[in-house]
Amino acid sequence: MNDRPDRCVRSLRGGSSAVGLAVVVLSLLLSTITFTRNAAESAPVPVRFPEGLTHGFLLVRSAAGDIVGYGELTQTVKEGGVAESRLVFRFKDGSLHDEKVAFSQQRVFTLIRYQLTQRGPSFPEQMDVVVDRGTSTYEVRAKAGEHGAEKVLTGEIDLPKDAYNGMIVMTLLNLPKGANETINVLAFVPEPTAIALELAFVGEQVIHVGDQSRKAWRYAFKPDIGPVKKILGTMLGKLPADFHYDCYVLADEVPSFVRFEGPLQLMGPILTIELISPQVASGPEDRKHASK
Predict the structure, then answer these.
(1) Which residue(s) pair with 219 in the sheet?
(2) 154-195 pLDDT, tens per residue?
(3) What is the C-alpha to C-alpha distance for residues 19 and 218, in angstroms, rounded to an integer?
(4) Which H or E run includes 152?
(5) Could you give the CA distance from residue 22 to residue 185 in angstroms, rounded to a whole number?
(6) Cβ atoms of 11 and 21 closer than 8 Å
(7) What are the C-alpha distances in Å from 193 to residues 138, 158, 229?
(8) CA gap 167, 10 in Å, rounded
(9) For residue range 15-46, what is the model confidence (pLDDT) as tens digits?
(10) 236 phi and psi angles, rounded to 5 deg
(11) Which of 175, 155, 208 is nearest to 109 (CA)?
């Protein structure tokens, strides 16, 4: 779903973590899909817009348009220039998506450490993941549903230079206008597996900012699930032929995240993730509660 206005536009210009966002966003796009040694080799994404202090908020809707959860993104830059980002989604059904990423941004973006927790009924697979480039190790705790038997997997991992879990939207916003790019993301089946993810420019879309009409660039995130087809097995029959996610970014010299449409796990529900602004309490009762 990462990944981040001045502060409101920047607030999700890198969010990913998304939505990564990272995703958005964003998170993680394929968190149910081990590390393949023959991952697609592509170059790291150059830094055009360095990341900095960020605090943003997100709204999560179901495919029917109902509000099902809220998100919060925080990001800081530590000594030595290492940035640390955290994206948390809390769902009304009690589910939790908690994604942390540490990365460097010296000329190119480089993922250093990645952590992911996904728990609750919104997630078919319950996950606790840690991947560390410095130690070349990973640990995955996973189980099917909330009551399944837990699997614990540990091992060594050689991360691709362009592995961008939790940084997908961030990397997207640093691409030249209209450019396509292919990066790597780790999916978990349950071991970490690198999968090529195409960030494909689709075209322009009109959006509204207050009473103004602006333009956004629409991108399709297209994962190459070839390396894990055998692992997925019959689940593939549930996927559409043109399997992809959609992400919209503000078409501007300084782009920003607008919206992500897709699941937070491969077989999870389709969600829409958008920015939301804090509102000042207006009623006396609201102010009374806020002062406590």
Answers:
(1) 201, 247
(2) 999 999 999 999 999 999 999 998 899 999 999 887 788 888
(3) 14
(4) strand 151-156
(5) 12
(6) no
(7) 11, 11, 12
(8) 15
(9) 333 333 333 333 333 333 333 334 445 689 99
(10) -60, -30
(11) 175
CB count, 10 Å around CB of 69?
A: 21
Amino acid at 3: D
Q: Which residue type, as a one-letter code, is found at position 18?
A: A
Instruction: Determine the Cα–Cα distance for residues 120 and 44; give it in Å rounded to an integer.
Output: 34
Contact 83, 111 (CB under 8 A): no
Class of residue 112 by CB neighbours under 10 A (exposed 0-12, middle 13-18, buried 19+) = middle
Question: Cα separation of 210 and 60, whole Å?
Answer: 20
Q: What is the pLDDT of residue 204?
A: 95
Which two structure tokens, joined as six digits, stand for 232?
Answer: 């997925």
In sequence order, what are the residues at sequence separation of 6 or more whose Cβ sits closer than 8 angstroms to the Cβ of residue 93? Answer: 68, 120, 121, 122
Which tens digit of pLDDT belongs to each residue from 54-82?
A: 999 999 999 999 999 999 999 999 988 89
